[in-house]
Amino acid sequence: MNEKAIMEKIDGYYDSMIETLKSMVNIDSGMDCPEGIHEVAAIIGNFLKDLKFEVEYLETPGIATHVLAKRKGSKPDAKNVMILGHMDTVFPKGTAADRPFSMDNEKAYGPGVLDMKSGITIALYALKAMDELEMFENNVTVLLAGDEECGHAYTDAVEKIKEVATGQDAVFNMETGADSGSVVLSRTGIYYPEIIVEGIAAHSGKDPEKGASAIRELVFKLVDLYNFSDTDDDIAFNAGIIKGGVAANGIAAHAECYADFRYKKVEAGPKILKAVDEICNGKTYVPRTHTKLTLDPKRGFIPMECSEESMKLFEIVHAQGEKVGIDIKGIAVGAGSDSCYTAVVGAPTVCAMGARGELNHGAKEYIWLYSLTEKAKVLALSILSV
Asked: Domains in the chain, start-ordered, CATH in brackets?
């Protein structure tokens, strides 16, 4: 492997990488804009076709488009490498026009610039360097989903990711990179329960006996949920939004809570679902109140657990970082990603291979421009070293 040649080649792509990134950032690709997701998918697909990939668009009409692309390596004993990511953002239609791609001397900004259109750009140009230098030795599969930000609630992306990941020797997820340059080796799982309690309104002083407090019922259940999570170090519960009532002297006829669970082990998932069902549906503290629980297991992520094989893959990534001049750390984070689905089928996985940056999902989201070429070098060298 001519490491110097591939690093010099990638350095020469800097301006082109910015233009490719700009073209994708300036396209709305939130869940309210499936046509934008399709447009981004076409940019990526055409790029990969030029690199001799067989490209397939997996479409769920009116929802999202996924890109699945494959290219065989030149070695007889080629390893199987998967590049994973997503093309959608959290931003509504119109954001790209209101806040388009912009740069200063060091950083780039815009909707999805970090999460994760820069990661896609990095992957495309790492593959381009390998192609132009005739160093495409391993088999490479690229799978980019169009609906990761909503947890794939309306498509079969989870099943497709697991199917493609099975048997892979290495998976690199181009998700949001940390400002420090660290990569992610484990992530918590996430559930999003919604709890709505209906009671009976009454005046709290004049005729309280006629009422049934939805707020009181909800509070008791939230205490139970917190107590449940406090008994397990691998489970955390948070009631993020609570609403209810109309007046201080009124017994509330309605109360609602929007919460989340974070959990570290895949095996804890069924335990959480069982406990939430028992607490919300199995008991009533305040007579004449009624509770509705909404908890869709597809709206969220299972944990990404770190395996010995993933640690070995991280060691490869770390070694390539040293060649580029950076000390890449492996960390655990609370946010979910599609890496959980590759890890759970046993594929060695390293996540957050994307650009350095911070503040994703916000108006001040940014990347460090120098990390485009930096991380493309690390990825290309890692793919060649698997």
From this structure: 3-188+301-385 (3.40.630.10), 193-294 (3.30.70.360)
